[in-house]
Write a structure and sequence with these properties.
The complex is a heterodimer of chains A (about 280) and B (about 280).
Chain A: H1 2-31, H2 33-42, E1 44-45, H3 55-76, H4 84-93, H5 98-125, H6 134-156, H7 161-174, H8 180-189, H9 196-228, H10 261-272
Helix pairs in contact in A: 3-5, 4-5, 5-6, 6-7, 6-9, 7-8
Chain B: H1 4-21, E1 23-24, H2 25-53, H3 94-102, H4 109-130, H5 142-164, H6 170-175, H7 177-184, H8 190-201, E2 209-210, E3 213-214, H9 232-241, H10 259-270
Antiparallel strand pairs in B: 2-3
Helix pairs in contact in B: 3-4, 3-5, 7-8, 8-10, 9-10
Classes of the chains: A mainly alpha (about 280), B mainly alpha (about 280).
């Protein structure tokens, strides 16, 4: 009796657990997404990762802020020279919390650029662009250039004097490039002069073309980060992959560091043991 | 530089080390990432608040450029008819903006607009292939560190110079007109004096310099001795009216000033034979 009662309870619990995990199992069986997310979350990173290595995800956060505030702004903004400026005034002064959304978009753009530069400086400092992460560095540089293009196209949209004249000069400067320059300037203007076509063109690039490209590149960037792993800080006494050349019969090419293998191991056991 | 086999072995060692001694991304690294992201979002919100609450609905609330802490909410509406507005890009283009002061139209301006930025971008993309050494520790990469410091310094100086570049105010420039007339010896030429006043108030000095006054932006040449180049009054007038006809795509069209004013400015420039 007692045994069957107990097994009855546990079978009910098993049923409940199965019901709870059913949607997850359903999704996993049909997509493999759950396993993917689990892999992303529980993948190992070196135990000595540094605060500076949060700059990449901080940049992503700034991008997400831009995406969300940008979508909200697009609900109120009118990409037409006759009403663009008024719609900006309306967003800033009348719409509930419109000032906050526009302010966050305006200042978030600067922060996004700053964080990209800081992130790049960190990668440079860590020498993290070296084999096998060359491709990810290149994707990052393209992201930086694309991000600055996003800044350039967004600057025109308020259609005020600052925006207008900065863009006039910016387009003229593009026009000085040999061969392609005049075509590029013509394309950006959407004609011979800056006018309604320029504004709708910049709007389309700013909220469709360039963000689409950015999202794709960010996806590739993150995929490569997960695939290749995060580097240890180069000064770490316990950097992952460090003693590869001193190990075995080969000559100790970095023996001059004085970091002997047993000492490094010991340090790790004392400091990293509780992290496991 | 290491052989490919050594590099591969080191990366395999890295993977193994991370697997053996690393910690899972969630919750360890993700905890730091989350805090950093919260800091970023807080900074963005704080900037938006300071910007909004220190400015007003009127585009002129801030009067001068710097009297609001973070600038006005928007400038005056875009007006293609004005010619005395000083073009100024967003801050992260200041270094390019100021770089153009170093190069003079027309011979070397392409270096500033396209040449140097393109070369910098190519070097940046090629970085992992230029620096093939495996060494990641900062103090053992003197060339990389010196290059990085020089880059950061020059970008910083150019950005600072671009931010603080003094803009010639129309009223200040106008005050210098009698002095110009005296130095150039056209005091009795009424058409030239009228042209000098138009020159001072039409925004020419936003980019050009004249007897030490003016911006020197975008590679615009000094015009103190423009009259010695033999273009003639008519030639100068046609040029100013639409510089793109002469292959100058940087300088905007000034046809909107009207033939009378253009003729005055052309007479003034033709009378400018350099200080006596």
């Amino acid at each position: 009796m007692a045994v069957s009662q107990r097994s009855g309870k546990s079978s009910r619990r098993r049923q409940m657990e199965a019901a709870m995990t059913y949607p997850i199992d359903w999704l996993e069986e049909r997509s493999g997404l759950v396993g993917g997310i689990r892999y992303f979350l529980f993948r190992k990173v070196p135990g000595d990762t540094n605060w500076m290595q949060t700059l990449g995800s901080a940049t992503l956060t700034a991008f997400i802020v831009q995406a969300i505030t940008g979508v909200i702004l697009a609900m109120y903004y009118k990409p037409d020279p006759n009403s663009a400026y008024q719609s900006i005034q309306h967003i800033t002064n009348d719409v509930t919390l419109g000032w906050l959304v526009r302010g966050m978009h305006k200042w978030g753009a600067s922060l996004f650029i700053i964080l990209m530069f800081f992130h790049m400086a960190r990668v440079f400092l860590f020498g993290a662009y070296k084999y096998p992460r060359e491709l990810n560095w290149i994707v990052g540089v393209i992201l930086l250039a694309t991000g600055m293009m996003e800044g350039f196209t967004g600057y025109l949209l308020p259609w005020d004097q600052t925006a207008y004249w900065a863009t006039v000069v910016g387009i003229n400067l593009n026009g000085t490039a040999p061969i392609l320059g005049p075509f590029l300037a013509q394309f950006l203007r959407g004609g011979a002069e800056i006018g309604p076509d320029t504004l709708s063109r910049f709007y389309s690039m700013h909220m469709l073309l360039i963000p689409g490209g950015l999202i794709g590149l960010i996806g590739l960037h993150l995929y490569l980060v997960v695939r290749l792993g995060v580097t240890s800080p180069p000064w770490s006494k316990d950097a992952a992959g460090m003693e590869a050349t001193t190990n075995g019969a080969g000559p100790a090419t970095n023996g001059r560091t004085g970091l002997t293998r047993p000492a490094a191991r010991g340090t790790w056991r004392r400091n990293g043991g509780d992290a496991e | 530089m290491m052989s490919l086999e050594e590099r591969r072995a080191q990366f395999t060692k890295y993977k193994q080390d991370v697997k053996d001694r690393g910690k899972p991304f969630y919750p360890f690294a993700m905890f730091h990432d989350t805090i950093m992201s919260l800091v970023v979002v807080s900074i963005i919100i704080a900037l938006a608040c300071v910007w909004y609450f220190t400015s007003g609905e009127d585009p002129n609330t801030c009067g001068g450029k710097d009297s609001c802490l973070l600038g006005p909410r928007y400038a005056e509406p875009a007006d293609p008819g004005t010619t005395n507005f000083v073009p100024r890009p967003d801050w992260y283009f200041y270094f390019l903006f100021y770089l153009l002061r170093i190069f003079k139209w027309p011979n070397s301006v392409i270096l500033g607009t396209v040449g140097i930025p393109t070369i910098l971008l190519i070097i940046l993309i090629m970085m992992p292939f230029l620096d093939l050494r495996r060494e990641r520790r900062v103090l053992r990469r003197p060339v990389a560190v010196v290059a990085a410091i020089l880059t950061v310094l020059s970008m910083g100086v150019l950005t600072y110079k671009g931010a603080t570049a003094k803009e010639a105010l129309a009223s200040e420039v106008k005050a210098a007109v009698p002095q110009w007339a005296q130095k150039q010896g056209f005091t009795n030429n009424k058409e030239a004096v009228a042209g000098a006043n138009a020159f001072a108030t039409s925004g020419c000095t936003a980019c050009h310099t004249y007897l030490g006054t003016g911006g020197g932006n975008l590679g615009a040449p000094d015009l103190s001795a423009e009259g010695t180049k033999g273009k003639g009054v008519q030639g100068l007038q046609t040029y100013i009216s639409d510089p793109s006809k002469f292959g100058n795509n940087v300088m905007p069209k000034f046809a909107s000033l009207g033939d009378t004013t253009l003729h005055q400015i052309a007479t003034f420039l033709d009378a400018s034979k350099g200080p006596k």
